[in-house]
Amino acid sequence: MSDTENVKSKLEAKFDFLKDKVLLQRERRLWAEVPYDKFMEVFDHAVKQLGFAFLNTITGLDAGADLEYIYHLAQAEGTMLNLKTKQSKDKPIKTITGYFPSGIIYERELVDLLGAKIDTLPPGIRYPLPDDWPDNQYPLRKDWNADVLDKNVGGKMEGENLNITVGPNYMKEPSDFSIAHTNDVTIPIGPQHPALKEPESFSVALRGEKIAAIQLRLGYNHRGIEKGAEQRSYIQDVYLIERICGICSHSHSTAYVQAVEEIAGLAVPKRAQYIRTIIGELERVHSHLLWLGVAGHEIGFDTLLMYSWRDRESVMDILALITGNRVNYGMNLIGGVRRDITKEEIDQTLKVIDKLEEQTKYYIQLALEEVTLIQRLSGVGTLTTDDVLRLGAVGPTARASSVPRDVRRDDPYAAYGEIPFKVITDNHNDVYGRTIVRMLELMEAYGMIRFALNNLPDGPISVRAPRKIPAGEAISRYEAPRGEDVHYVRSNGTENPERVKVRAPTLANTQAVSKMLEDRYLADLPIVVAAIDPCFSCTDRSISVVSLDNEERKTMTWKQLRDYSVDWYKKQGVDFSKMKRSSF
Amino acid sequence: MMALFKMLVFPGLLFLSAVSLFAEFFDRKLYARLQNRVGPPWFQPLADFIKLLGKEDVVPEEADRRMFDLAPVFALTAVVVAFLYIPMWGTHAIYSFSGDLIVVLYLLTIPTLTFFLGGWYSRSLFSTIGAVRSITQLFAYEIPLFVAILAPAMLANTWSLSEMAVFYHAHPYYWLINLIAFGVGLVSLLGKLERVPFDIPEAETEIVAGSFTEYSGRLLAYFRMAIDIEAVVGASLLAAVFLPFGLGLPPVIGFVLYLVKVFAIIAVLALFRTVFARLRIDQMVEFCWKWVAPIAFLQILINLVLKVFVIR
Amino acid sequence: MKKPFVHPGKMIEFVLQSLFKKPATVNYPFEKMKMPEHFRGKLNFMADKCIGCMMCVKDCPAKAIQIKKVGEKRFECDIDLGKCVYCGQCVDSCPRKALEITPEFELAQIDRDKLKIVFHAPEPTTEPKAQ
Known about the structure:
Oligomer: heterotrimer
CATH topology of the largest domain in chain A: Cytochrome-c3 Hydrogenase, chain B
Largest sheet of chain C: 3 strands, antiparallel
Shape of chain C: elongated
Largest interface: A-B, 35 and 32 residues
Distance between the termini of chain C: 85 Å
Mean pLDDT of chain A: 81
Structural class of chain C: alpha+beta
Radius of gyration of chain C: 25 Å
Mean pLDDT of chain C: 86
Number of domains of chain A: 2
Number of strands of chain A: 17
Number of helices of chain C: 3
């Protein structure tokens, strides 16, 4: 009996009401629908007794009078158990942060976007919507439409008379961020800051140069992709999902397409799988070289930035040659890939890979020998193995703490089942370890690309996919360069999907950042944040507010708004007038 | 009249500005070429300076206006005055008196103080952190620098730069004794000029621009010019103290030799900028006190021994 | 790999070599970058092949293409280059291969309206109908 069947029988044996109701969709995928009153029992049993120690994400759906919640759990060996439950829109559900502290961000997302009511959720900053979002507007509900926000557009932007309409909920005070001593200075890092490639906000309370407390706020890059995906057809969605991120675009696109293919029961030809894998690994090479440059820049080592980005250009040229574009490759199609790889392209790719391999060997030597690099990266951003398991970190962040978590091996997809590779782990537990993991993964990727190119099977590159996908659901996982990327798709027989849920790897890793920065220096913040390789474009996907619609409206001029925000920051403890005292 | 010409035109303010702008170009071009890039054209620093002069000065409301405005001016003045006492070619500077070495060293400390004051009185969060880091860094590199410069002065038995030049001219090859101190001097100069690996007060990825975050327009132009001139003055000082050879050559060749020395030092600084990552402030202080300062004292010891027993 | 010997300035020899190599920078716009043949740039519409089935309009993820009927079997195509994401789905969806993708990518304009381009329908033929 396989692992999956094992789990199924154990679950059915323990709970009578689940007898014959646990669906074994395929290898490593189990689905079970549980009424809410018995839900926490089943959840508890699965987590504690059956070894489902990892919470991938929680999907919420609008099901008429109820809200449907799907908790996606995974075992270290790769089997996924998806527990579905329904609860009426006005009744609350219990929080699961007791089992998974990292689950808090998924629950906050449910509260914000779907209006779920969750009991005993610890207080904190909302995610992903901004503070001035009007009440009772839940974007992911089926009856919600963005036009509701357009009704009252604020004044035109002309010079000084920038009239911005704010509502009474504007900038509610985030709770639980008390600064212990008056000697602490709070520094806002972000949303705009030279260290951050994408906007997010860290409020850092400093004591001298050490970080006393840190509060993270995400959601600045939220664009409404999940809602947008529901309003477009499957074919259009391939391109939409691809544009969630520039550097992981193939990851998202492949994960989505795999889910849809699973629902439609399409058998993707082998050659297409191999081509997808090759592009995926080339993307990984691109992403890791980019990361190397960013890490160099964050620690002031611009030379490393210049050289690694010069090498990255050769990968982008190859990708442009094979796929037709340097980023957002557009290679995937539901049912296969759009373009084939010719012999000349294969030869050119192999040449570039050889050159890159030599360069990467040099960078590895550099990381092992350059003393300033080692000093800046070692001992910084420490995460023990327990921390990783508790906070649910994924990707190289987890693998640098000796947690061998890699979806390509645990839950193989595309051609990974047939290509030999090693899962790289390291035991340094810090940013230095993450650097080593990423660079050794580069070496592995070169090997994988060579193997795939030399053993490319013949055959067609796609099968025909119907426009209307039959009703069903599937969850697909992909090892993006940053970690595990999870896509859930539910179809309802029409040309548009019913629900698309994306959980990008950076969302799982941000929980770990606060832990990593405990008791470290401010100077370490950029490199620690950079070390999880943040891609906030992947993480946030909401709707930008054009204006607000509130009963009580207050119009402010630009100067008033500036004064308002200075005042607000004063209440948070960032008070420039305090500088007059010699508090240093 | 001659004095005014010497102070303002050659080799004073105008000449010094021209050389510093060219030195900044040289440094940036070398940095770029070492990174396989093209780098800016020769007029880039001049263009930057003129552009900044033409921009509006945006001053934060909370800043102390007087100190904010004066800090760059003090910085610029201090470095230009320091240049007057450094012998370039031949053995005499424009002005010299006994003890001018100490005066030059103090004058070179003033820019760092003005970075601190400018950053502190900007009242902005990032500026304050940058200012504090500048001062902390001062404690780390200043002592090694002073001690390193003290060593050749001790050997020459004088506190005047010009008389040191005379001494070394009279005893060729004596400057080879001071090479250890030269190494220490180079490292400390990196700290003083706030260059990688010691550019923590101005770490772009951490605190935007450190002390200079709130500066813009004219005042920023003066600060940047002061930093450029500080680089040339620092390099000239090192050249005068540690590389005092060829001082008897006729003026034109001597002048060219002087330029070669200065640009060689700047080239070495650019190389260091390229191959190192930035150190954290605690690592930097530890490095300076654990390694650099003892080596400087070692040189003093060597010089003492040589002076007492070998040279009379 | 060689055994690591930790010392500062590891990159010095590598970096000094670059002094003698040609810079990696391409002197754009004086030197143009050459894009590969199948690079996805601007679209081209061949009006004589279009049958007005509107599949391209339906499948465009960005609603960047519009087909208008201007006469008997004559269709005009409006493309908004600002909205187009250059995915090429319309090219794949067209049953008559009336759309193709060219490697032209220097499409920037200062005026947003100039980004809307129109491919006109061919002139109507004046051949008399067969008797």
